[in-house]
Write a structure and sequence with these properties.
Helix content: under 10%
Largest sheet: 4 strands, mixed
Shape: rod-shaped
Oligomer: single chain
Radius of gyration: 23 Å
Length: 171
């Protein structure tokens, strides 16, 4: 089994193998594991943890071989979804010159839901572009700024994770 069978990049899953019908020692080999992840390599173990770094659908096969030479295989499907921004809002909208405005980002991916405040251990990384003059980007999911000029602004946020994945959304 794989638990969970659907994850996001930067999350882990565990492959667990149960064997019956033998009293001999069993060795295990895995194939089809997510690519580009040094923490997701085949090992001779009945329980293999795997940190996925690349989105995709993987057919993971485990081959169990006992010392008598009996072989059994099983395959499970692991789905790895990319980092995704699920919400990007501005409040209030419209706003007034020099009035505090909050841009809020909700993302899903690296280690679950990423909302609120500063990230731990440096991830995720939030950045903003297209902000009004005298407003600066900051690594936060809730950016407060005040427009020092009138006009319409197209603001883009980018959220990145430690595996090198990023996603953007524009207001």
């Amino acid at each position: 089994t794989d638990s969970p069978s659907t994850i996001y990049t930067g999350q882990s899953t565990t492959f667990t193998v149960s064997t019956t019908g033998t009293t001999n020692a069993v060795s295990y080999a895995y194939s089809g594991l997510p690519t580009a992840s040094p923490t997701c390599a085949s090992a001779n173990t009945a329980s293999l943890s795997c940190l996925a770094r690349v989105a995709g659908t993987y057919s993971v096969t485990v081959t169990a071989t006992d010392t008598a030479g009996d072989i059994s295989t099983a395959t499970v499907t692991l789905t790895v979804k990319p980092l995704t921004i699920t919400g990007f809002t501005v409040s209030p909208s419209p706003t007034y010159e020099y009035f505090p405005t909050t841009f809020s980002v909700t993302a899903f991916g690296y280690e679950g839901v990423l909302v609120g405040g500063l990230p731990t251990a440096g991830y995720p990384i939030y950045s903003y572009s297209g902000l009004p003059a005298r407003s600066a980007s900051s690594n936060t999911s809730h950016l407060v700024c005040s427009a020092s000029q009138q006009g319409s602004f197209t603001v883009t946020t980018t959220v990145s994770d430690p595996t090198g994945n990023s996603t953007t959304k524009t207001l």
